[in-house]
């Protein structure tokens, strides 16, 4: 079995090489590459190996750039420290993935998986790889929402996680009300600005004065006029009104 390693950390590559030879003594490590540029040149000049171990982040970019420039007709096992979304994409579109630091038992299981699978239809493997690249590119283009806010409280500035916020209130100043019912001055000047920064599945712009977190909603009732009166878990005697026009949108947002 001819194996190519694409890894820019020399110690990781050395450990992977040693562990592979312990697991499968007949494995031949045909080369160890450390960059996108080097890998593209290698694939243009050499025959495709039987299996590739590939890190995601390389010294001059991400390994997806390699496979966007050259066609690779062999299975790939990714080594990565990416988030849960990325791991799901790897699982669906590659033979396997290994989290760093690489566990020997997991490495052995990945090799066994490779040996059991059939790769007679090589085009399907390329198609899966292209799907993976597309999925990761789509993820990188998604908007980034704030997960941490700075607030002024007791003559100090404190960090507040998004999931610790009950709601934002616009009065003379803009305030954060926490799930512990603490009132803090927010650094931002307007709710319009905040609305573009918070995740829309977690926060709802109720009106001109309030943005509320989904976990803070205790109940709501319908007024005879058609508007909604929302009661929050953390705000004593504080009611938030949602207009009749936005009532349906709020209900759909809450009912997920």
Characterise the protein shown here.
The protein is an alpha+beta fold. The chain has 2 domains: about 1-140, Response regulator (Rossmann fold); about 150-255, OB fold (Dihydrolipoamide Acetyltransferase, E2P) (Beta Barrel). It contains 8 helices and 17 strands. The protein has helices spanning about 10-25, 35-45, 65-70, 85-95, 105-115, 120-140, 190-195, 245-255; strands spanning about 1-5, 30-35, 50-55, 55-60, 60, 75-80, 95-100, 150-155, 155-160, 165-170, 175-180, 185, 205, 210-215, 215-220, 230, 240. Strands 9-8-12-11-10-14-13 form a 7-stranded antiparallel β-sheet, with no helix packed on it. Strands 2-1-3-6-7 form a 5-stranded parallel β-sheet, sandwiched between helices. Helix 4 (about 85-95) runs antiparallel to helix 6. The chain is elongated, with a radius of gyration of 26 Å. Residues about 120-125 have low confidence and may be disordered.
Distance, first to last CA: 49 Å
The residue fraction in helices comes out at 25-40%
Shape by Cα distribution: elongated
CATH class of the largest domain: Alpha Beta
Q: Which fold does the CATH topology of the largest domain refer to?
A: Rossmann fold
Largest sheet, in brief, is: 7 strands, antiparallel
CATH superfamily of the largest domain, by name, is Response regulator
Describe the strand arrangement of the main beta sheet, using strand numbers: 9-8-12-11-10-14-13
Beta percentage is 25-35%
- Domain unit count: 2
Give start-end ranges of low-pLDDT stretches: 120-124
Secondary-structure-based class equals alpha+beta
């Amino acid at each position: 079995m001819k194996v190519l390693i694409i890894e820019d950390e020399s110690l990781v590559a050395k450990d992977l090489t040693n562990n592979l030879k312990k697991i499968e003594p007949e494995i031949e490590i045909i080369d160890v590459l450390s960059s996108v540029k080097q890998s593209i040149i290698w694939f243009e000049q050499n025959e495709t190996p039987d299996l590739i171990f590939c890190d995601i982040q390389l010294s001059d970019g991400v390994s997806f750039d390699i496979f966007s420039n050259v066609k690779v007709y062999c299975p790939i096992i990714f080594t990565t420290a990416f988030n849960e979304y990325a791991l799901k994409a790897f699982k669906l579109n590659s033979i396997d993935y290994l989290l760093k630091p690489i566990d020997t038992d997991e490495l052995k299981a990945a090799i066994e998986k490779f040996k059991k699978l059939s790769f007679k239809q090589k085009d399907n493997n390329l198609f899966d790889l292209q799907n993976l690249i597309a999925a990761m590119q789509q993820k990188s283009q998604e908007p980034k929402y704030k997960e941490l806010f700075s607030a002024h409280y007791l003559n100090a500035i404190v960090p507040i996680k998004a999931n610790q916020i009950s709601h934002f209130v616009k009065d003379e100043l803009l305030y954060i009300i926490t799930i512990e019912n603490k009132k803090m001055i927010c650094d931002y000047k307007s709710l319009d600005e905040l609305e573009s920064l918070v995740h829309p599945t977690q926060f709802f712009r109720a009106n001109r004065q309030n943005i509320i977190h989904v976990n803070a909603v205790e109940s709501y009732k319908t007024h005879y006029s058609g508007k909604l009166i929302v009661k929050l878990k953390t705000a004593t005697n504080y009611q938030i009104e949602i207009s009749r026009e936005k009532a349906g949108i709020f209900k759909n947002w809450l009912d997920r």
